[in-house]
Design brief:
Number of strands: 12
Order of helices and strands: EHEHHHEEEEEEEEEE
CATH architecture: Sandwich
CATH class: Mainly Beta
Distance between the termini: 38 Å
Mean pLDDT: 92
CATH topology: Jelly Rolls
Number of domains: 1
Structural class: alpha+beta
Helix content: 10-25%
Radius of gyration: 18 Å
Shape: globular
Number of helices: 4
């Protein structure tokens, strides 16, 4: 179906520490934006470099790595230039982002998205919606400027499929894994509370790349391998 639920990964003390980190970073960023006359941030990027020790502990969690190893093999990298962000979903912040989309363009690149839920995620407060099996739908191109993924509502080929997306509730401390080609979206938050999550992207070590670009990817399991036939 393109996704996998991992429940009871983090304890309440761990999620509390992560929420405090997220809210402190968001508060500081919102103040900087306020001084520039900008709206508050919805997604806060660059989490790994904001607190490397805390985030690395999260993205190397044994339960996560065990699940990723079954999908990607033993040599796994964290992708810093896709996701690597937190979302504070409230009643106003994500209305314009509740659109089904893919995280990557085509299957040859590969990406597994991991969403960590620091609060319970329900249909009422905007849990993730996923269109099961949609990672098997065909490639259609990128009409949006500077686009990374694919927005379903910008392609007539996908007309009528959006209504088939399912809400995927997740308890606090759980992780939702899904292929980057699966169409998904944040849900509308109809409650008076937040729904805080952190999202990261992972892929297998690139066997055709001589050396990893450590500014954009970090080894979190195993080692980098090269298997090009020029050696």
């Amino acid at each position: 179906m393109g996704y996998l639920r991992l429940v009871n990964v983090l304890g309440v003390e761990e999620t509390a520490e992560l929420r405090e980190f997220v809210l402190n970073e968001k508060r500081d960023e919102d103040e900087r934006r306020r001084l520039r006359g900008e709206d508050p941030v919805v997604k806060l990027y660059g989490l790994y470099d904001r607190n490397e020790a805390l985030v690395r502990q999260l993205v190397t969690h044994p339960t996560l790595i065990d699940a990723l190893t079954g999908l990607l093999g033993p040599n796994i990298v964290l992708v810093k230039n896709r996701h690597n962000h937190t979302t504070v979903n409230d009643a106003h912040g994500t209305k314009n982002e509740a659109r089904l989309h893919r995280d990557i363009l085509q299957p040859t690149r590969g990406l597994v998205t991991a969403a960590f839920y620091l609060e319970a995620s329900t249909p009422e407060n905007g849990c993730t919606n996923i269109l099961p099996g949609s990672h098997n739908l065909p490639y259609v191109g990128v009409p949006q400027p500077n686009g990374g993924g694919t927005w379903m509502d910008e392609h007539d080929e996908y007309e009528g499929l959006a209504d088939q997306a399912l809400a995927v509730p997740m308890p606090e401390g759980s992780v939702l894994l899904f292929t980057g080609l699966a169409f998904h979206s944040v849900g509308h938050n109809r409650s008076d509370k937040t729904r805080i999550s952190m999202t990261f992207g992972f892929r297998a070590a690139d066997e055709l790349e001589h050396a990893p670009d450590e500014t954009r990817q970090i080894m979190v399991a195993g080692t980098h391998i090269y298997r090009g036939n020029d050696i």
